[in-house]
Design goal:
Chain A: InterPro entries: AAA+_ATPase (IPR003593), ABC_SmlMolc_Importer (IPR050093), ABC_transporter-like_ATP-bd (IPR003439), ABC_transporter-like_CS (IPR017871), Mo/tungstate-bd_C_term_dom (IPR008995), P-loop_NTPase (IPR027417), Sulph_transpt1 (IPR005666), TOBE-like (IPR024765). Chain A: It is an enzyme of class 3 (hydrolase). Chain A: Its EC number is 3.6.3.25. Chain A: This is Sulfate ABC transporter ATP-binding protein. The complex is a heterodimer of chains A (349) and B (304). By secondary structure, chain A is α+β, with helices and mostly antiparallel strands. Chain A folds into two domains: 232 residues, Rossmann fold (3-Layer(aba) Sandwich), CATH 3.40.50.300; 108 residues, Nucleic acid-binding proteins (OB fold (Dihydrolipoamide Acetyltransferase, E2P)). Chain A is 25% helix and 37% strand. In chain A, β16 and β17 form a beta hairpin. In chain A, α3 packs across α4, α3 packs parallel to α5 and α4 crosses α5. The radius of gyration of chain B is 27 Å and the shape is globular. The chains are: A alpha+beta (349), B mainly alpha (304). Chains A and B meet through β6 and α5 of A and α12 and α13 of B.
Chain lengths: 349, 304
C-alpha cells in the first residue's frame, strides 16, 4: 500500500512539530524517518497511524483519505517505543488481542485464532514463550512480541516507533538484521522512526532525514550519506569536519587568502566547508588551504584522530582530522589540512 | 569514555580496593554495616514502637472484645439479636453497599479522566477529590442539612415532591458518599498516571473499541488497586460517625447506623450491648486489615 502525506502541519501550543511536510511512500517499501529528538519524526508517524491529528494537510492510503478513518479503522500495525505490551496478558493473549476484539463476521473462530497466533509466534521465533507474561521477558523478546502483535491484524502498514531504542547494542544489531530479513519475507509497507543513523542506513530502502519539523532530504542510504542536500544532513549523518570560510563571487577565502576550493552555487557571505574526516588529508602546513596546531591525538582500533586548532576570523575552531596510523605526529605540531572531497554551504543556512 | 569519567569504578572493577572499599570490606567482615545501628539502639527502638502500638491499638481492641463478652456469650448474642441492633446492622450494610458502588463508579471515572486525558480544570478536580479528607465530617454533615434540611436551600422542592433526605436514609447515604469520596479515586489516579496511555493506544490501534479497551486493558491493569480502594472505602463507610450523626436524627430502628447505635447504647449505660455491637466493627477492621495485606502483596507483585 502507498502512503501519501501532503502539506501536513501540526502544532502543540506554540511549538510547531511538523511544518508543511509532504512525503510519498511506495508500496512494500521500508522507510526510515531519521532525525534528532524534537525533529517531528514521531509526530509524523503518529499522524500516519491516526493516534494524532494534523492541524492542516492530508494523509492518503492508496489514494483514499486516511484522515476520515480513526486509528481503529486504519488497520495499521503500530510497534510502540516501549512496546506497550498488555501487562496482565501472557504473550499468546497479547498477540491474539487484535483478533479477539473483532466483532461479527470478521471474528475468527477460536481454532483459527490459535493457529494464526502460533504461526506468528514461530515467525518471530518466540513460540516457546507463549505462556510467559511481559514482565518475565527480556527487552529483545518483548520487541518480538510487540511485532507479532502488530502483525496479527494483517496490517496494511507497519509503523515502528524507535523499535530498538531500549535495547543494548548487541541485541539491537541482531534484531535489526532479523527485522530486515522479516521485511523481505513479508513485504508490508513499513515506516520506522529512529534517531540512530546506523540503524536507518542499514535497515531502510529510503531514509527521510528530518530536522525542526521539516524534511531535509529523502534518498537512499547511500545518497543521504554521500550527497547530503543540506548542512543539517551533513552534520547529522556520519562524522563531519566543519572548516570555516567565506565566499566572495564564487571563490572561497579563509583569513583573507583564497583557498583554491570550489564553491560554485553558494551565495556570498560566511560559509562552512563540510567534509568527512577520512576525506581530509594532512599536508605540509604551507601547501594546504588550512593549517593549525595539533592539540591532542587519540587512537582507537584502526582509526587515529587529531584535534587541530585553526584560526577562524577573530576566534579559533577545533576540528577533528583523521591521521594515518603510521604517521609520526605529536601534540603541538603544526599541520596543514586539505579537504579532498567536501561540500560548501552558506554558514547561516 | 564513561570509565574515564569514573576512575573509582575502574579501580573497583579491576579488583584494586580503594581506601574506602577496603574499610567497607573490613566492616562487613566484622558483621557490621554502615547502615546498621548498635544492637542496643535497635532493640530500644523496636520496643518503643511495640509499646506504643500495644498501648494505643492492641489494648483497646482487646478491651472491646473483653467488655463485649463480659456477661457471657448468651448476653452477647441477645445484644446483637435485638431488633434495633439488627436494624442498625442492616442500615449500615445498605449504606455501605450504596456508597461503595457510587464511589467505585465515580472513582474510576474521575481517575480515568484525570490520568488519561488533558482538560481544563483538571487540577481543580484533583483538589476537590481531596476535599473530604481535609473537611471535618461534622461540617460535611451540616452542609447537607443546610442544603436538604427543612429550612435548607432545596426545602421547597423536596417538600413539593415529598422527598425526605435529612433525618432519613438518603441523607445518611449522601453524607457517607461524601466522606468516602476520595478513597477509590486517590488509589487509582497515581497508578493510572504511571501506567500512561500507551497500552490503550496499542489496544485501539489493534481495532478495539473504547469500551472494550476499558474492560480488556484499563480495568484489568488497575484491578488490585481498585479492590484496595474499595476495601478502604467500605471500612470507612461502615465506621463513619460524625457526618452521619448530624444528618441521621437518631431514630431507633430507622436511621441509626452501627456507630450511632453503639453510642446510644453506651450513653444508656448498656455497656455489654454497646461493646457487643462495637466488636462487630472491630472484627470488620481486622478482616479489612488481613484483606489489605493480601492486596498490598498482590499490588507489589504487579509492579515487578
Amino acid at each position: 500500500m502507498t502512503i501519501e502525506v501532503a502539506g501536513v502541519t501540526k502544532r502543540f501550543k506554540k511549538f510547531t512539530a511538523l511544518d508543511n511536510v509532504s512525503l510519498n511512500i511506495r508500496s512494500g517499501e521500508l522507510v526510515a524517518l531519521l532525525g534528532p529528538s524534537g525533529s517531528g519524526k514521531t509526530t509524523l508517524l503518529r499522524i500516519i497511524a491516526g493516534l494524532e491529528w494534523p492541524d492542516a494537510g492530508e494523509v492518503r492510503f492508496d489514494g483514499e483519505d486516511a484522515l476520515a478513518r480513526s486509528v481503529r479503522e486504519r488497520n495499521v500495525g503500530f510497534v510502540f517505543q516501549h512496546y506497550a505490551l498488555f501487562r496482565h496478558m501472557n504473550v499468546f493473549e497479547n498477540v491474539a488481542f487484535g483478533l479477539r476484539v473483532r466483532k461479527g463476521a470478521d471474528r475468527l473462530p477460536e481454532a483459527a485464532i490459535r493457529e494464526k497466533v502460533n504461526t506468528l509466534l514461530s515467525l518471530v521465533q518466540i513460540d516457546w514463550l507463549a505462556e510467559r507474561y511481559p514482565s518475565q521477558l527480556s527487552g529483545g523478546q518483548r520487541q518480538r512480541v510487540a511485532l507479532a502483535r502488530a502483525l496479527a491484524i494483517s496490517p496494511r502498514v507497519l509503523l515502528l516507533d524507535e523499535p530498538f531504542g531500549a535495547l543494548d547494542a548487541k541485541v539491537r544489531k541482531e534484531l535489526r538484521r532479523w527485522l530486515r530479513h522479516l521485511h523481505e519475507e513479508l513485504p508490508v509497507t513499513s515506516v520506522l522512526v529512529t534517531h540512530d543513523q546506523e540503524e536507518a542506513l542499514e535497515l531502510a530502502d529510503r531514509v527521510v532525514v528530518m530536522g525542526h519539523g521539516k524534511i531535509e532530504q529523502v534518498g537512499s542510504p547511500a545518497e543521504v550519506y554521500d550527497a547530503p542536500a543540506t548542512a543539517f544532513v551533513h552534520d547529522f549523518i556520519g562524522e563531519t569536519v566543519a572548516l570555516p570560510g567565506e565566499v566572495r563571487a564564487g571563490v572561497l577565502f579563509h583569513d583573507g587568502k583564497p583557498l583554491g576550493l570550489d564553491a560554485a552555487g553558494v551565495p556570498d557571505g560566511p560559509a562552512r566547508i563540510l567534509a568527512r574526516p577520512h576525506h581530509v588529508d594532512l599536508a605540509p602546513p604551507g601547501e594546504a588551504p588550512f593549517s593549525g596546531r595539533v592539540l591532542s591525538l587519540r587512537t582507537f582500533g584502526p582509526t587515529r584522530r587529531a584535534d587541530v586548532e585553526i584560526a577562524a576570523g577573530s576566534g579559533k575552531v577545533v576540528v577533528e582530522a583523521a591521521v594515518p596510523l603510521d604517521l609520526a605526529l605529536e601534540a603541538g605540531a603544526v599541520v596543514g589540512l586539505r579537504p579532498r572531497a567536501y561540500k560548501v554551504f552558506a554558514a547561516n543556512g | 569514555m564513561s570509565d574515564a569519567l569514573h576512575p573509582g569504578h575502574v579501580l573497583a572493577s579491576e579488583g584494586l580496593p580503594t581506601g574506602i572499599a577496603r574499610a567497607d570490606a573490613e566492616r562487613r567482615a566484622a558483621g557490621k554495616s554502615v547502615h546498621t545501628e548498635p544492637a542496643a539502639v535497635r532493640i530500644a527502638l523496636v520496643l518503643v514502637a511495640l509499646a506504643f502500638l500495644g498501648l494505643f491499638i492492641g489494648l483497646p481492641l482487646v478491651v472491646v472484645f473483653v467488655e463485649a463478652l463480659k456477661r457471657g456469650a448468651a448476653a452477647y448474642v441477645s445484644a446483637l439479636a435485638n431488633p434495633d441492633a439488627l436494624a442498625s446492622i442492616r442500615l449500615t450494610l445498605l449504606v455501605a453497599a450504596i456508597s461503595v458502588v457510587a464511589n467505585l463508579v465515580f472513582g474510576l471515572v474521575a481517575a480515568w479522566a484525570i490520568a488519561k486525558f488533558e482538560f481544563p480544570g483538571k487540577s481543580t478536580l484533583i483538589t476537590l477529590i481531596d476535599l473530604p479528607f481535609s473537611v471535618s465530617p461534622v461540617v460535611a454533615g451540616l452542609a447537607f442539612v443546610l442544603l436538604f434540611g427543612a429550612q435548607g436551600l432545596f426545602a421547597g422542592y423536596l417538600a413539593a415532591w415529598d422527598v425526605k433526605i435529612i433525618f432519613a436514609v438518603p441523607g445518611i447515604v449522601l453524607a457517607t458518599i461524601f466522606v468516602t469520596f476520595p478513597f477509590v479515586a486517590r488509589e487509582l489516579i497515581p497508578l493510572m498516571q504511571e501506567q500512561g496511555t500507551a497500552e490503550e493506544e496499542a489496544a485501539v490501534s489493534l481495532g478495539a473499541s473504547g469500551l472494550s479497551t476499558f474492560f480488556r486493558v484499563t480495568l484489568p491493569n488497575v484491578k488490585w488497586a481498585l479492590l484496595y480502594g474499595v476495601l478502604l472505602c467500605n471500612a470507612r463507610a461502615m465506621g463513619e460517625f460524625g457526618a452521619v450523626s448530624v444528618v441521621s436524627g437518631h431514630v431507633r430502628g430507622l436511621t441509626n447506623t452501627m456507630p450511632l447505635h453503639i453510642e446510644i447504647l453506651y450513653n444508656e449505660y448498656q455497656f455489654a450491648a454497646s461493646f457487643a455491637v462495637a466488636s462487630l466493627l472491630a472484627l470488620l477492621a481486622l478482616v479489612t486489615l488481613v484483606a489489605k495485606t493480601i492486596l498490598e502483596h498482590r499490588l507489589a507483585e504487579e509492579d515487578t
